[in-house]
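We treat protein structure as text, and this decision shapes the records that our systems exchange. Below, we set out a record of this kind in full and without editing:

***
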Amino acid sequence: MWSASIASNLADGILQISAGLLALSLTRNPVLISLMPALAMLPWLLFAIPIGGIVDRVNRRKLLSYANILRAGLGACLALLIATHSLTIGFLYLFIFLSGICEVTIDTTSQAMIPRLLDKSHFERANARLQISESIISGFIGAPISSFLFALAVALPFAFTSSGYAVAAFLIFIIPVHALDSTKPEKVGERETFRSEIQFGIRYLASHHILRRLVITTTSIGFFYSASNATTLLYLVDILKMPKQYFGTVMMVQGIGGIIGALIVPKVSKKFGRGIILAVSIFGGSLPIFFLGLAPNIYIFIAIGILAQLTVQGWNIVLMSTYQNLIPNELYGRIHGARRTLVWGVMPLGSLFGGFLATHGLRLPFFVGGAVATAIALFNFPWLASLNQERLDAER
């Protein structure tokens, strides 16, 4: 499973940078550029809940493998369109949207597998290892490779992306069935209807006060994170005068913060508790966003970005471990889908909001997004800090 994660993260790193560079070669309109991250996140709003229900009903190993196969096919089609000079911005939008649907399936299924494999005391350690592989492979290898491949031939990085997803699909498919297949066929009449199962997952999330507030907090702050990031590439190229071929390198260097965060979070979380790390991380990931808009040059931007990545990585690891601790595994797909519908579903709106802000100045999304996100973090700081392990165990 970790090897599959490495293969898919390499593909993700290449795709993320190459798609941005490709969009920049097709348009310079800030609103059209902001549609890229918006369309990538839109499937979470539209499909996360039904896909979560599917995850709880089917063979998770096969579902994860098939989703990677589909992404491989999409990457191959995009490479073909580029090679035949048939690509338009509309086709690129369609690719991003369909690939986002696959991402919803892959993320939900993967997260549902982790509690099946591990005891809750190892959640931070496991999530940290996966985050490290994501940071190193996606950021330090995929990002610079993508810029190099894009310079050689525009279609080349997308062909490599297709291959990476195909390898991930194969590695998932050969995992022994007994290790991951927690979904057993049931006799007719023993299983509730698909609709009733989804409704139960939504009701469970709405009635669980810790889960509910975590989702509300993450949803509100995620909106403004997305707004601030929507036109980052345009900001770097037009305001900080960065040559666009170095975008992958900038993302790679900023990834240092993510690696440091993933290395230290399991230890500090064990020492200080999940709640303290959640509170500190959400504040430490929000405040630097404002200062990114003040960066006078690319070097200051990178330094601030390293700090932001360090704390955001801590938030991601501990938050996911908290969810895995609170949510029963047999309900994980539905509840994960319901919360991601809210949390990631608002991100397309945030991206579009950031795009419109950028029409009045490319620094403005960082100022607005950073200021509001920091205010939300400060408001929730005391409550997050109170979420110790004993309280989480009592609320499961």
